[in-house]
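Q: Sequence in, structure out?
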Amino acid sequence: MGVEGEKERISAEINRSAPTSPTEPILPIVNPTINEKKAPDSPSNKIHPAFYVTTWIALSSSIIIFNKWILDEKKANFRTLSPKQTAILRFANQKLPTDYPITLTCWHLTFATIMTQILSRTTTLLDGRKTVKMTGRIYLRAIVPIGAFFSLSLICGNMTYLYLGVAFIQMLKATTPVAVLLAGWGLGTEKANPNTFFKVSFIVIGVIIASYGEIDFVVIGVLFQIGGIVFEALRLVMVQKLLSSAEFKMDPLVSLYYFAPLCAIMNFCVALAFELPHITMADFYRVGPMLFLVNACVAFALNVSVVFLIGRTSSLVMTLCGVLKDILLVAISVLFNHEPFTALQCLGYSIALAGLIYFKLGADTVKAKASDMGRVWADYGARHPALRKVIVFLGMLGVALVVLVGLAP
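A: Exactly. Output:
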């Protein structure tokens, strides 16, 4: 009886769990995902990343050359002056045209403040600010100190254009990662590492060699650039410390939304003390209101392009784009602005750029990418041998032109 009762219970359990109809389907015959509509891709996702890379490099290079042109004292009666001669005139209190870099920086930040306020009300580009828990106390303790360093770095950076050429400035800027590393060690955000220090030493050695080979070496200009690099390094480390909390994650455009008004006020105060009392309408119209407006638009467009570039590419692409931009700026300055460029500078800058890539990417990544690029280049040469020879020839010709122009008296 026990065995038969057990069979009956098992049979009953099976019958209760079985389908009530032999024709009842056990598996669904309709795929529920077939009728689901996929969300349409945003217009930005349909654009190739190369467009964002090209746009960022073009805008970044343009604003540097544009600022240099506006602040270029070698206009009118000063076309034949070298940076050393203009520095002597400044120390002798001789007025030079458009010698107002702080005011120009203040104008950029004022324009950025207006544009970020407009974008925050008319677009979704600044929706990220809604996730930032910003209070008055946090603004005073975090945003104000960072804004002060940001303002000082911009002032020093624009002051440098009055004394040094674009090519030499870009060489000095290669030391920024070294300054950021040292600032991180000093503020305790990074642990000191001898291996890392060895990597950045190549950058320092390269810049020292390039500086030694600089013909128009102006001490005050180099000091301004060093000050700008130090202030920028402190700002970056403080931003990194602030963004280590998930509630303060901000993209570059949201950061500009918070920092631009504060920095504009700080720059205005400095300009009011040193520059604004000496500015005349003749200085303003010498450049022209439309060019000032276009200059501010290019500066703001650069900040917008950074947001899209970060969203559509990787940190590796950002690093390589920065190196490529610096090389292009040096080449343009030498070829078109006829800035002096010696063979010793070429050697030093090459060492600094190689050290920069090695520091940011690491040896393993560099080897892997170099191997991939070698295979791609070999495959391209096998499919287009004639075009490959043309590219190699043009590249060698470009390098030769840069060297020859740099060595020219």
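The two ends are 116 Å apart (CA to CA).
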